[in-house]
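User: My notes are a mess, but here's the protein and pyridoxal-5'-phosphate's SMILES. Can you give me a structure?
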Amino acid sequence: MTDIFQKCFEYEEAKFVKASGLYPFFKPIDTSSGSTVTYEGRKVVMIGSNNYLGLTHDPFVKKRAKEAIERFGTGCTGSRFLNGNTVLHDLLEKKLAKLVGKEEALVFATGFLTNLGSIACLVGAEDTIFSDAENHASIIEGCRLSKAIVVTYRHNDPFDLQKKLSDLPKNTGSLLVTDGVFSMTGDIVNLPQLISVKKIYPKLRLMIDDAHGLGVLGKRGEGTAGHFGLTEEVDLIMGTFSKSFASIGGFLAGPSDVIDYVRHKARSFMFSAAMPPASAATVLACLELLEKKPERLGRLRENVTYITRGFESIGLSFIPSETPIVSVFVGDEGQAFHLVKDLFENGVFATPVVYPAVPFGQAIIRTSYMATHTKKELDFVLGVFKKLSPKYGILKNTLEIPEEMTHRSQGYNFKALGKRH
Ligand SMILES: Cc1ncc(COP(=O)(O)O)c(C=O)c1O
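Assistant: No problem, the inputs look usable. Here's the predicted complex:
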């Protein structure tokens, strides 16, 4: 017999980085104001979160969360199936269905559990899943759990998808699943083209993971499908509350019959405790604010334009983006860790992204912005990048960004055009 712990005893990578003093993960934050945090006694500007609307510290949102604790206590201590359901969860589902334009929604304890449970119960071993090469890990795990055949198509490439779909045996069920906004580089799915391909296959179902599109895209923050005016064409919309909605939890929205099926079959829903009442109340408050004060979305978009123009004027090697995720290409992983440390020492909290989230040798600094970042904070961030970028060689004229990364924001892989025949 071998020892399953042996690989742990031999695992050196994290120890090696820790020994170098550059380990950039699990930083314990002391206090937070949203757009700034203090860590190791230093106040720094936060550009490493998913708090796009900056609602985690909104007084109205916090008040609602506190009221929910007073009314329901701190936790549900059980599955929604049994003792863990509250009127807040039910109301939240109604509001979410309305926001994304679907018949019904089902709220899970996290976004990860939403993808895991929904995909695994809707798709079976006899079916096929078509999945974007850069889909989130929770989709990948949901696909694995379903035991379906998983066909991965090139990132955001409808031609590659079409080619792969044409090999599909006639009598199998199939799901096309994609992120709406890709979490690492912020590019938006090429939904119009994906839907033209989908139309060739009337029984193909489409699911969008809109974790990073909700509260960001669309006139009302309704997400990617609404942004393109294609809500009707998308069968299922999944979302999470761990980004714009300042909380924790996830949901799946779609036709009533499908949602009811998932409610009674998804094991990650049935056998996991409900999200805490304060978390549900937080999301409800965020939705109320978004409805009453949609100008927050405008402020977020202004900040994204401001920072991307600033990066452009510095000549920084960043990946063009229309979303709050604006990643700076570094390439070398060690260099990325050094840069993150230096950014921090200069007053900026940012996070490196390395393999397996991106391919080896394509490390990025994922920066992201909030509606509540002030111009002063953004100018500060720009000043720090301007100061450090020559030292790290992260200027467009000295560092080549891999083509597949720079072409992302067009949502269109033109190389595939040539390869079609
Ligand atoms: C695209 C995407 N889907 C799903 C999830 C999982 O969401 P949660 O944090 O609610 O588990 C995330 C979070 O990282 C994500 O980025």
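Residues 408-421 have pLDDT under 50 and may be disordered.
User: Great, I'll file this with my notes.
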